[in-house]
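Ticket #4471: structure export looks truncated?
Reporter: QA, pipeline team
Priority: medium

Steps to reproduce: submit the single chain below to the structure queue and open the exported record.
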Amino acid sequence: MILSNARILTFDPAQRVIDCGSVEIGKDGTIGKVSSRPTPKGRNVIDAQGKLLMPALINCHTHLYSTLARGIQLAGSAPRNFPGILKKLWWRLDRALNPRDIYYSALVGLIDSAKCGVGMLVDHHSSPNACAGSLDIIEQAFREVGLRGALCYETSDRNGTAGTKAAIAENIRFIERAQKLNDGLISPSFGLHAAFTLSDRTLRQCVEANQSPGAGFHVHVAEDRSDAGAAHRLCRAGILAERSIAAHCIHVTAAEMNTLARRRVNVVHNPQSNCNNAVGIQKLLELNRRGVLTGLGSDGYTPRMWDEFKTAFHVQKLQARDPRVGYAEAYAAAFLNNREIVKKCWGLELGRIEPGAKADLVLVDYLPPTPLDAGNLFGHLLFGISNAPIDSLIVNGRHVLRHGRIVRVDERAIRQKASDQARKLWQRFETLK
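Actual output as written to the record:
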């Protein structure tokens, strides 16, 4: 397949903008020749009609199980702080989930993500009363929709000893199976909730269980003040290393930032969720200055990584009270660091249009009304491309979305079944304390 007559944002080391070119996609799902000229019409040539072609977006931290909570009502007064939100909403929701809830929540979340140009999601799952095999259910949804994913199960002590053992077992079982398959479409991590719900004993058990498979850990770190000091504790326990993902890292000290940088830990910023939960603003500028690789995620708040990019940019200006800051850091988090995290953790070459990289591409219906080049790309991304309709999404060389329509599953039927399932889930949710 060849995509021709496209304006190409390569995101290669030279940050090239090709005004009218073509990209060859091999049968193995990788990018072949990238040309600065359009390819003549042919059987395997797709005319992009001047639309903008760029690498598919990556969401480095999300919770697909939260999709069916959209519109859910909480009885009584609203929670006043983050621990209250966890107890009244999320820790009740995850206990209410059954296998069908998991499946349809993942399907809808993945469809929404695809329609927003996201080609890969790093998911963090929890369903204590439907733990065993839950990651296989999510994997099935990924494969049906056609997106790329990295999956883990959230280990926590909050559901008792049996719950902790089940979570560790689900992580190890899935890690070993995914590593054996090793197809580059579904990758594993070892999931942990957060330091404040994990004892030292459980942390030791997780490190011991993970010694043989050697997957990276995926854990929430210092999202709220209640988890302050978590970074140092998790580093001492052997959890945080160069293939680990530390989501949030809002309430970290300068010393902890230096430790994260020294250990080459991958941090993920989730600005909209942080704003919604009123937990604080990540010190993205300082993390970057200290050499901490910081990417971007949604924490399940939205499928639109474009909005996370814009919010990351804006909140840094507010935090610094300086309109000059945030440009390089927000750009790097969304378009450079996410791909570097994926490469470090799972060895995948994503996020650039170069020969040999994975053909995860998005075609955007954006015809720039002003000159577009490498020097002014940020302005076009922020004010134009981020608001433009997504025409098509290709993952691993195959269409997931074409001309705005999901091509591999019946979206309408899935949404109807998901709505019916959500009603049942909400009824179960109401019975839990």
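Status: closed, not a bug. The export was complete when the record was re-opened. Leaving a note from the reviewer for reference: The chain has a mean pLDDT of 97.
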